[in-house]
Each structure stands twice: as C-alpha cells, then as structure tokens.
Design a protein that fits this description.
- This protein is an all-alpha fold and about 140 residues long.
- It has one domain: Globin-like (Orthogonal Bundle), CATH 1.10.490.10.
- The chain is about 55% helix and about 0% strand.
- It has seven helices and no strands.
- The protein has helices spanning about 5, 10-25, 40-55, 65-70, 75-90, 95-110, 110-115.
- α2 (about 10-25) packs across α3 (about 40-55), α2 crosses α5 (about 75-90) and α5 packs antiparallel against α6 (about 95-110).
- The longest helix has 18 residues, at about 10-25.
- Bound molecules: protoporphyrin IX containing FE.
- The site of protoporphyrin IX containing FE has 21 residues, from α3, α4 and α5.
Amino acid sequence: MSLIRRLGGDEGVAALVDQLSVRVRTDPIMGPYFRDVDEEALNRHRTMFLSALLGGAHSYTGKTLADAHGPFRLGDREFDAFLRVMRETLEAADVALLDRQSIVRRLSRLRNDVVSRGVSVAPGAPIFGGPEARD
Ligand code: HEM
C-alpha cells in the first residue's frame, strides 16, 4: 500500500494539514509569522503540503519556496521548529514511524529553499512532486 493510502488518502492528508496549521499558528517560534496571513494564503500552503505528501501525481509550480519565504528572512531555528511541529502532528495522528521519517526527510531537503542564505531555485521549476521525487 502506498504512503498516501496509508495516510487515509486526500481526506486523511487534509486532516493532517489542518492539525499542522493549528500547531504552527500557536507555536511560539512560528506563530508570529502567520499573524497577518490570510486564509487563502494558508490554503495555498496546505495545497503545497498535500502535493508534497501525495508524492507523485502532483507537482507544485506556484511561487518558489525561496520567493515565498525570502521576505521573512527565516533561519534554521524557524525551519527546525517547522520540522518539530510536523513530527508532533504526525505522531499525534498515529502515523507509523517509517512514514513519519519518510515525510520529515522529504521536507528537510527543502531547508535551503526556505532558510535565507542567498540560495535560490530556478523560477517556475517544480520544487518537488512528480515521480522523480519519490523516495
Ligand atoms: C519545508 C518547509 C516549508 C514548506 C514546504 C512551506 C511551504 C509554503 C508554501 C507553499 C507557501 C505558499 C506560497 C505562496 O504564497 O504561493 C508558504 C507560505 C508561507 N510560509 Fe511556508 N513552508 C515551509 C516552512 C515555513 C516556515 C519554517 C515558516 C515560518 C516560521 C513559514 C512561513 C510561511 C508564511 C508566513 C507564509 C505566508 C506567505 C504569505 O502569504 O505572505 N514556512 N509556505
């Protein structure tokens, strides 16, 4: 059975993303960044996560992660907080250990696109998703 099916399909992933959003908004490190973010932007964020977690059928070709996060000048501290909150969310939802590790590993590869170090990615390039992105 594929990862997406073990997570309960689109519905299961949407529920996970909802739980993640609540934790992100109430996290002392990340919460402040989301104070002025509207629901629509948050939904784009969610869609991204859905595509990422589905791992194959969907690609993300919206704003690059570097463009979306660059203005916030995020550091490793914020990125580590994000991975921690993701781990907590997956654990609370009883996602199996190997699946949790696989999901967090995929997200952790995006550090250099989210954290500001002057590193950028090609405009319009799919950031992840698509068969070549599978573990
Ligand atoms: C692997 C980690 C992450 C991924 C995959 C991710 C993904 C995304 C995506 C796809 C968007 C929407 C971009 C758009 O508007 O088109 C977004 C927006 C945003 N992200 Fe992240 N993000 C990550 C980590 C973080 C972290 C660590 C923070 C801050 C602590 C953060 C804060 C934000 C904020 C504030 C927005 C809203 C930007 C706006 O609408 O003005 N993200 N993120």
